[in-house]
Write a structure and sequence with these properties.
This protein is α/β, with parallel strands linked by helices. The protein is built from 17 helices and 20 strands. It has 2 domains: about 260 residues, Carbon-nitrogen hydrolase (Nitrilase/N-carbamoyl-D-aminoacid amidohydrolase, 4-Layer Sandwich); about 200 residues, Rossmann fold (3-Layer(aba) Sandwich). It has a 7-stranded mixed beta sheet with strand order 5-4-3-2-1-14-15, with helices on one face. Helix 9 packs across helix 10. The protein is elongated.
């Protein structure tokens, strides 16, 4: 490999490189540029020779159909030019949207540039454009075609953009693309690989990426640097954890997760800063939800959030996340008991509010519900505990919460989990009301694991909330398991069906009861219409109920 020869000839040549992960807001060019300039000044203060930012850092990722607006493209190019002309004394690599001057193909490129002392020295266009899950880049961008490396301060750099590095034939058993840009650049003489990315988070992904990066660095015997976006943009979360691997494949620099950070890598010593990150998948997931809630609320222009408490574990967890994300002074919680509400739920919500340091407001709905039934009695009777009556209760609560949201200008956070949303165990315009579904991609069993972690040092979420059997409390003595399998069983089937994309027979072969598997799949398919009307949720698994999962509502397909 050419990379091996180059790597051994560069001892003594030093370049300090700053891996700068920032949290851009889509379309906030002025603030994004301010963040970039602040990071550059910090890196210059640390005597860095080069600073590297993430994919589309000037505009924020993913801009989606904003890319169809010419003024959006022009604003991004103007801010790039301002950076190029104003930054001196350090090289800068950053991502942007560029125009395609050709007469064919899409109008834009997903690009990266290196500039130094007022001049753009090198530019690349992303070659591999993903179109799976939340990605739809081929809709907007023209793929690049060049694979050359370039010389900068005696290093021959192979610069790539996110997906360009995700096609190594020795790592993936089935590749998505016929070419490997990294392999091409190594053949062109690259002895330092730099990948800028906006790589979305999901739980367990970080170790997968590390194994891939480690293998590439070790195979080609060259250092590999990876700079990732951090922050939440709509449903999509980015964990940061920008990295450097030395030529032996050992991790030698790492930025923090879920916050803006900078790590320094020295090309001579091939060593750098190792910053702490979440210690477990559960901690990582909790931190992702907190960051995603904070960014969604604030980037949408709100400062306060509203949560309806029920006395159950889902609303308790949502309230905890809201407090951690926004501060206790910015969270309002409402408890709306009915004639079916157990006394322990009065006590549990009060204790939870005390533990979180927030004020609890109580608005009983029994009288409102009675009036509803009275006014509807000419049309139907005796529906109080039937599904119709249960849904009316949920919609009364949803209406109250939306009214408070309107009055006080706070964003309503819905509290349903992924298990319920999957099988339709939720009410449109009732408990599904809200501006953000915080835990809608968190299975019920994971909700319990997260709350156990929260209570590891001291009881924050009352133990009585964790221990009680789940119930919607819309009729006497109601339990979730009256209508659903146990959540341990349900979540196993749902993961196999939704995330692992297994067919019914494959799931049955895992040891699940055939009748339960088929009933769960039927429920998932029948409730697509509900999920299409749900508020956006934070994506934390490999397959969430958002725009990365596209199923028709009206269809007649029945799995055999």
């Amino acid at each position: 490999m050419l990379g091996r020869g180059f790597a051994t000839n560069l001892k003594g040549i030093t370049m300090k490189i700053a891996l700068a992960q920032i949290n851009p807001t889509i379309g906030d060019f002025a603030r994004n540029t301010q963040k970039i300039m602040a990071a550059i000044e910090r890196a210059k203060g640390l005597s860095c020779d080069l600073i590297v930012f993430s994919e589309l850092v000037i505009s924020g990722y993913p801009p989606r159909d904003l890319l169809e607006k010419r003024d959006f493209i022009q604003a991004n190019l103007i801010h790039l030019q301002n950076l190029v002309t104003s930054i001196k004394g350090i090289g800068v690599i950053c991502g942007l949207v560029d125009e395609n001057p050709g007469k064919e193909g899409n109008l834009h490129y997903n690009s990266a540039v290196l500039f130094d002392n007022g001049k753009i020295l090198h530019q690349v266009h992303k070659r591999l454009l993903p179109t799976y899950d939340v990605f739809d880049e081929r809709r907007y961008f023209e793929p690049g075609t060049e694979y050359s490396s370039f010389l900068y301060k005696d290093r021959r750099i192979g610069l790539s953009i996110c997906e360009d590095i995700w096609n190594d034939k020795d790592f993936f058993s089935r590749r998505r693309y016929p070419v490997d840009p990294v392999e091409r650049m190594i053949k062109e003489g690259a002895n330092l690989l730099i990948n800028i990315a906006a790589s979305p988070y999901y739980v367990t992904k970080r170790e997968f990426k590390w194994d891939m990066f480690q293998g590439i660095a070790k195979k080609y015997n060259v250092p590999l640097l990876y700079v990732n976006q951090v922050g939440g943009n709509d449903s999509v979360l980015f964990d940061g954890i920008s990295l450097a691997f030395d030529s032996k494949g050992q991790m030698c620099a790492r930025a923090r997760d879920f916050e803006e950070d900078m790590a320094i890598f020295d090309t001579n010593t091939q060593k750098g800063d190792i910053h702490p990150i979440s210690e477990s998948d559960t901690q990582s997931l909790l931190n992702a939800l907190i960051m995603g809630t904070r960014d969604y609320v604030r980037k949408c222009g709100f400062s306060k959030a509203l949560v309806g408490l029920s006395g159950g574990i889902d609303s308790a967890l949502t309230a905890y996340i809201a407090v951690q994300a926004l501060g206790r002074e910015n969270v309002i919680v409402i408890f709306m008991p009915s004639q079916y509400t157990a006394q322990e739920n009065f006590e549990d919500t009060e204790k939870l509010a005390r533990n979180l340091g927030i004020k609890l407001f109580q608005i009983p709905i029994q009288g409102i519900f009675g009036k509803f039934l009275e006014e509807l009695s000419p049309l139907f009777q005796d529906v109080a505990t039937e599904v119709t009556g249960q849904n009316i209760q949920a919609r009364i609560r949803g209406t109250i919460l939306m009214g408070i949201s309107n009055k006080f200008g706070c964003l309503l956070l819905s509290t349903g989990n992924k298990s319920e949303l999957a099988v339709g165990y939720c009410t449109l315009y009732g408990d599904m009301s809200g501006g953000l579904a915080v835990i809608s991609d968190v299975p019920k069993t994971m909700v319990y694991r997260i709350t156990r972690l929260i209570n590891k040092e001291q009881e924050v979420i009352p133990e009585t909330i964790i221990q009680k059997p789940p119930s919607a409390e819309l009729k006497p003595d109601q339990l979730d398991q009256d209508d659903l399998p146990s959540y341990e069983l349900l979540d196993g089937i749902l993961k196999a069906f939704i995330e692992d994309k297994k067919a019914a027979e494959e799931i049955i072969d895992l040891g699940y009861e055939p009748s339960i598997v088929k009933d769960v799949i039927r429920r998932v398919d029948q409730n697509e219409y509900k999920r299409h009307q749900a508020p956006p949720g934070l994506k934390v698994t490999t397959k969430s109920f958002g725009y990365g999962r596209r199923y028709p509502i009206a269809h007649k397909y029945i799995p055999t």
